[in-house]
Design brief:
Blueprint: H1 4-7, H2 14-24, H3 32-52, H4 56-68, E1 74-75, E2 83-84, H5 86-97, E3 105-106, H6 113-132, H7 138-157, H8 163-167, H9 171-187, H10 192-203, H11 222-238, H12 255-259, E4 287-288, H13 299-311, E5 322-329, H14 331-337, H15 347-352, H16 354-364, H17 380-387, E6 389-393, E7 404-410, E8 415-420, H18 432-443, H19 449-460, H20 469-474
InterPro entries: MmgE/PrpD_sf, MmgE/PrpD_sf_1, MmgE_PrpD, MmgE_PrpD_C, MmgE_PrpD_N
Organism: Talaromyces atroroseus
Domain MmgE/PrpD C-terminal: 292-461
Length: 484
């Protein structure tokens, strides 16, 4: 049915423009560098899923779902003897990807795309195979992933991107349902009108509180809520269920209007960003991959400390000689990671804290999964350094989101300082080869080499895969716990 705008000869609004593009664009329309990068991003997402599948909080969530619902049709990564419903599998597999602060994020509109998109797609594939005996080839899977990579950030930019974090919203959980719905809709080859329904159903489920970062385990699961919401929206729309129309630009109770309330920005939201330069400017190019196992806003802190360690190895070899540590941060990073971390702390809070990650880098020379084992979280040497650390919102650093300065003062009065515009993971960003190295490094010892090599080969040659369900099946057998 034609919309009122179309009947009157008016230009469709941003929601319909997005839906029309999602329906019609093909893999051939995607630049080669974006297609290739997407494969490496998928590989990184699966690495994070392997690392996270048997962490304590993931196992706790999985146990709850296994006890709560009957055996289903969809694979839970790392649990070969268990299957659950598609919606629950999307949530649990997303929780694995997001479970250890190792996954991707978008530079301008922060969300962890892989944790939202890949689990939702695999759940949809499982659902299709049972109900329709339909195989999903690699080209369809790849273009569906890219559909989500392009949609989530655009919706986020409509809400001023990273400003959502400053306001206390978990931005990825707010932007994420749209990404999931777009990807699954593309996979199911829904027409634009049904994609609009899917997005409308997904958006009314959006939300996520950033207070989850202060030690709760639910922070690991909030992107999973987004994965599940988008999947549900697309499956309902496939069967003709009607969603909110023009959901992004609707002024009364619309997605942007409501989440934009109280933003303090003028205008409070930017609907034009949702459909801006579709097929011309590729948001996929702004997705970055983490090097450290901590919240993205702490990475420049860690890199500043590492730079000081490289410059002054002898002076910083004696941690007792440190009198104070000052961490100067821009607004978003300060509100997200500059909080006063308290002892004892759970792994979630530690990974979100700039002070904690700076101390860990000073002590261990790295910030990786092993630094957040239970027996590592309460070390006196780390907490002594945290006690000497203060975080500040430094106005002189300007508005560049990632710029940070670390100043270490020694007992003898020596002052050591390093300022970086951005961490390595942001600028220049990890290369495809470095993502491949990260994949191999993270999965070493957690999965048998033969299975790891099969997953790697299949992902990097995804366009030639006849049935992507085989990749999902390779993720089913157990993985080891990296912090056991």
């Amino acid at each position: 049915m034609a919309s009122t705008h179309e009947k009157n000869g008016e230009t469709p609004g941003v929601t319909k423009q997005l839906c029309q593009w999602l329906e019609t664009f093909t893999l051939d329309d995607v630049p080669e560098d974006v297609r290739v990068r997407a494969k490496y991003l998928i590989l990184d997402g699966l690495a994070c899923g392997i690392v996270g599948s048997h962490l304590p909080w993931t196992e706790k969530a999985a146990k709850t779902f296994f006890e709560m619902e009957p055996t289903g049709t969809s694979i839970v990564w790392g649990y070969s003897d268990k299957k659950v419903s598609p919606l629950s599998a999307a949530l649990l597999n997303s929780t694995s990807v997001q479970s250890f602060e190792l996954d991707d994020w978008h530079l301008s509109a922060p969300l962890h795309s892989n944790s939202i998109i890949i689990p939702a797609l695999f759940s949809a594939i499982s659902h299709r195979e049972v109900g329709q005996s339909t195989k999903t080839d690699g080209k369809t899977f790849l273009v569906s992933v890219i559909a989500g990579y392009e949609t989530g950030p655009r919706v986020g930019l409509g809400l001023h991107g990273a400003h959502m974090l400053t306001r206390g919203w978990h931005s990825g959980a707010v932007f994420g349902p749209s990404a999931s719905a777009a990807s699954v809709s593309k996979l199911l080859q829904l027409p634009a009108s049904s994609i609009e329904d899917a997005l409308g159903i997904a958006c009314t489920q959006a939300g996520g509180l950033m207070s989850a970062q202060f030690g709760s385990e639910v922070k690991r699961m909030q992107h999973g809520f987004a994965a599940r919401s988008g999947l549900l929206g697309a499956l309902l729309a496939q069967n003709g269920y009607t969603g909110i129309k023009n959901v992004y630009e609707e002024k009364f109770g619309g997605y942007l209007a409501m989440f934009g309330q109280g933003s303090g920005k003028e205008p409070s939201y930017l609907p034009e960003e949702v459909s801006k330069e579709l097929g011309e400017t590729w948001q996929s190019r702004l997705i970055r991959v983490k090097y450290h196992s901590s919240m993205a806003g702490t990475h420049c802190t860690v890199d500043c400390v590492r730079a000081l360690q490289d410059k002054y190895p002898e002076k910083l070899s004696d941690l007792k000689a440190i009198a104070s540590i000052k961490l100067d941060m821009t607004e978003v990073a300060f509100h997200h990671g500059g909080f006063d971390v308290k002892r004892p702390v759970a792994a979630t809070g530690a990974q979100m804290s700039a002070a904690y990650t700076a101390a860990t880098q000073l002590v261990d020379g790295q910030v990786l999964p092993s630094q957040f084992r239970h027996d590592q979280l309460d070390r006196d040497v780390v907490w002594e350094l945290i006690g000497k650390t203060k975080c500040y919102h430094a106005l002189d650093l300007g508005d560049e989101r990632y710029t940070q300065r670390v100043t270490i003062t020694l007992n003898d009065g020596t002052v050591l300082s390093e300022t970086l515009k951005a961490p390595k993971s942001v600028a220049p960003g990890l290369t495809n080869e470095e993502i491949l190295e990260k994949w191999r490094r993270l999965t070493q010892g957690l999965v048998e080499e033969e299975r790891r090599d099969q997953i790697e080969k299949m992902v990097l040659d995804i366009e030639n895969v006849d049935d992507v369900a085989v990749l999902n099946q390779l993720m089913a057998a157990p993985f080891l716990n990296p912090i056991a």
